[in-house]
Design a protein that fits this description.
271 residues; mainly alpha; Butyryl-CoA Dehydrogenase, subunit A, domain 3; Nuclear Transport Factor 2, Chain: A; two-stranded antiparallel sheet; two-stranded antiparallel ribbon; 4 strands; 52% helix
Length: 271
């Protein structure tokens, strides 16, 4: 393999790590790209004492810590102003950082043993990613390097430029914080919930707005990142989907297992 191919072989694993650190697919992709650039520039200094993936994880962790240090607070569109109308222009919001799901194919390498694959898939569940947001960045990094990647306290200390004692203390505090969070996998939908979801998916895929509107609450809120537009009420949602939102017609609605009970996504239908 060429040096570039050697680095690229680890892209999926690095994406998973950066996603766990940052909680955003876009930010994770950016962090991995920066990791590759730094690694390529430093490849001549890689002495081979550690595995290449371990070395790349070290770089990626520091890239993510830099990114987290630069982050600012965020607000939902609904917190910044009143609901809009379907005639409002679509204005891109300044880039913010939102928790968002990631696919297994994007973040879980396939060259691991079955037990490791199960663990890695569990580590990108939204419940776990959300819980990680309650940890300071260095505690988060220490926990992920230890509990997901299996690094020793000494290896983590070397990566984070900390003492082993401080790493062990960070791990203890991080685990205590996570112990207060609900990390259980989403419960299975009840029969009634499953039937309701099936009706929603069916109505959307047929683009039957009459049927879809009957499934929406009177106080339904609709938003569409990265735009700052948000709408409230079934009538506004219907107007949108008949107008500019009609680009959704013909898209498939798919379940997103493990990302939350009843979670669905949209994708363009195959032609």
């Amino acid at each position: 393999m060429t040096p570039v191919a050697d680095l690229e072989a680890h892209r999926t694993a690095l994406t998973g790590h950066c996603y766990r650190m940052l909680g955003s697919v876009m930010d994770a992709d950016d962090a991995v790209q920066e990791t590759m650039v730094r690694a390529w520039k430093s490849l001549g200094r890689f002495d081979g004492r550690a595995a290449l993936r371990t070395w790349l994880y070290r770089i990626a962790t520091n890239v993510c810590l830099d990114a987290l240090a630069d982050r600012k607070g965020r607000l939902l569109p609904m917190e910044e102003g009143p609901a809009g109308t379907t005639d409002d222009p679509l204005v891109d919001r300044p880039r913010t950082h939102w928790l968002e799901p990631i696919s297994d194919a994007h973040a879980v390498p396939t060259d691991e043993d079955p037990a490791t694959l199960v663990s890695l898939r569990q580590s990108i569940r939204l419940a776990f990613i959300a819980a990680l947001q309650h940890l300071p960045p260095r505690q988060r990094a220490a926990l992920l390097l230890s509990d997901v990647l299996g690094w020793s306290a000494a290896e983590i200390a070397d990566n984070l430029d900390q003492s082993v004692a401080s790493v062990n203390s960070a791990l203890q505090r991080a685990r205590a914080t996570l112990a207060t969070r609900d990390l259980r996998a989403p419960g299975a939908l009840s029969a009634d919930q499953r039937a309701l979801l099936d009706r929603y998916v069916d109505a959307f895929q047929r683009y039957d707005l009459d049927a879809l509107e009957t499934l929406l609450r009177d106080d339904v809120v609709f938003s569409m990142p990265p735009y700052d537009l948000w709408l409230q009420g079934p009538d506004r949602v219907r107007q949108w989907m008949l107008g500019r939102g009609s680009v959704c017609r013909g898209r498939a609605s798919i379940d997103a297992p493990g990302r939350g009970p009843g979670a669905t996504g949209r994708r363009a239908a195959s032609r």
